[in-house]
UniProtKB/TrEMBL annotation:
<protein>
    <recommendedName>
        <fullName>Transposase zinc-ribbon domain-containing protein</fullName>
    </recommendedName>
</protein>
<dbReference type="InterPro" id="IPR024442">
    <property type="entry name" value="Transposase_Zn_ribbon"/>
</dbReference>
<dbReference type="Pfam" id="PF12760">
    <property type="entry name" value="Zn_ribbon_IS1595"/>
</dbReference>
<feature type="region of interest" description="Disordered">
    <location>
        <begin position="122"/>
        <end position="158"/>
    </location>
</feature>
<feature type="domain" description="Transposase zinc-ribbon">
    <location>
        <begin position="18"/>
        <end position="66"/>
    </location>
</feature>
C-alpha cells in the first residue's frame, strides 16, 4: 500500500513541485535529442516563446511558422490541470498500475474528486496502450460506455 507520509514519497513528489520543473522533465522525456516540431519534424529552426502573455512550454517552428505546446499530443493535452500535478499522479499510481483510489488522489493533489477520477481514467487508459505512455488518443476523454439521453429513457418508461 502507498505510504503518503514517507520521506521517499515526499522527495519524489518534490521533483515535480512546480510547473517549471515538470516542464523541464517532460522536455527531456519527450524530446531526448532536442525540441522538434510535431508538424514538420524540424529540429533546427525551433525557438521557445517566453513572452509575458505566453504560457510556459510554448514553442514556435520557424520552418513551418506554427507554434506548438509541450503537452501537444500527450494525455495531458486539453486539460486544465497543471503538468506537475499530472506527473505527481502518474508517480503515485506507478503509471496506472498501482491501485489508488480517486479519493486519495483528490486529497493528495488538492484537486476535485471529479478531476482526480478523470486523471486516473486517462492514466490507466494510457498504461494499457502499447504505445508511448503520453499518447494523444487518451486525451479526447471518450469512454466505451454508451450515454443515453433523457429522451430515450423517457421513451422506455412511457
Amino acid at each position: 500500500m502507498l505510504q503518503h507520509g514517507s520521506d521517499r514519497v515526499r522527495e519524489s513528489l518534490g521533483m515535480f513541485a512546480d510547473e517549471l520543473s515538470a516542464h523541464r522533465y517532460l522536455e527531456r522525456l519527450l524530446w531526448p535529442n532536442g525540441v522538434s516540431c510535431p508538424r514538420c519534424k524540424s529540429t533546427t529552426r525551433v525557438g521557445r516563446l517566453d513572452g509575458a502573455s505566453t504560457r510556459l512550454g510554448t514553442y514556435k517552428c520557424y520552418s513551418c511558422r506554427k507554434s506548438f505546446y509541450l503537452l501537444h499530443g500527450t494525455m495531458m493535452k486539453s486539460s486544465h490541470v497543471p503538468a506537475h500535478k499530472w506527473l505527481q499522479a502518474v508517480y503515485l499510481t506507478d503509471g496506472g498500475t498501482k491501485p489508488v483510489q480517486a479519493y486519495h488522489l483528490h486529497r493528495i493533489l488538492n484537486v476535485s474528486l471529479k478531476t482526480a477520477s478523470s486523471m486516473m481514467r486517462r492514466i490507466s487508459q494510457a498504461a494499457g496502450e502499447p504505445r508511448r505512455p503520453f499518447s494523444s488518443s487518451v486525451a479526447d476523454g471518450s469512454s466505451a460506455a454508451p450515454v443515453r439521453s433523457r429522451q430515450s429513457s423517457e421513451r422506455l418508461h412511457a
